[in-house]
Amino acid sequence: MRVLAHIHTFNDADVIDQTIEALLRQTRPIDGILIVDNASIDGTLEQPSVKHATVLCHRARYYPCHFNFWSGCLYRLSAVSRIGLPNRDYMLDWGETEYGYRLMKAGYKGFMHQDAILQHNIRGYRSLTPTEVEGEADEAPAFGYPPSGLAYPPIRCYYSCRNIVYFALYEFREGGIRALCRIASRALRLTLYFLRKPRNHSKQRAACFRGLWHGLTGNITARY
């Protein structure tokens, strides 16, 4: 059996030598080291230990993606003119998914630029609010949703569940039943997350179930 060590890097000049040296000191000597560098600009690949590795470089400062969150997205006006404006029925969640999917079907490509910086101001009327619930950090990984230390208000529970299920059943056409189940399972995980909390979350549970029902029945025009 041959063992290949893989290291992915991006501006890791300060740690790449220690990483490779640690690999070279393994009890069972490795047969090779592969570095996949994501366009580092800090001299990562000029460090002395890199000579022990095979290097693959991604020189582009951007990479393709299907969609991104609304915040920070830029769209060509010609594309918007062709496919229309975002669907106003996708409130709060998954509107960017539906719009990105619509753009992709129309033949457009999306890209993420690695140098982009987004200052996301969530002050004021927040859709996510910090919580101090005992055990929150331990419970969140069970279903992976919502993020640890954050609580979804009922209105977002409703729209998240409804929009996810509706998109999976009535909009998405690629990937077959397996992809459909993976998408829809996100709404189920959110519902299960609140089912595990017996106190003070009855409104979230009710909103999740109502959203699931409207998503299953195709009622995308309903409002919370």
Structural commentary:
There is one protein chain. The protein folds into three domains: 56 residues, no CATH class; 61 residues, no CATH class; 104 residues, no CATH class. Helices cover 39% and strands 12% of the residues. The strands form three sheets. The chain has a three-stranded parallel β-sheet, with helices on one face. Helix 1 links the parallel strand 1 and strand 2. Helix 5 packs antiparallel against helix 6. It starts with a strand and ends in an 8-residue tail after the last helix. About 6% of the residues have low confidence.
What order do the helices and strands come in, and which of them pair?
Elements: E1 4-9, H1 16-24, E2 32-37, E3 54-57, E4 62-65, H2 77-83, H3 95-105, E5 110-113, E6 129-130, H4 136-143, E7 150-151, H5 154-171, H6 176-195, H7 202-216
Parallel strand pairs: 1-2, 2-3
Antiparallel strand pairs: 4-5, 6-7
Helix pairs in contact: 4-6, 5-6, 5-7, 6-7
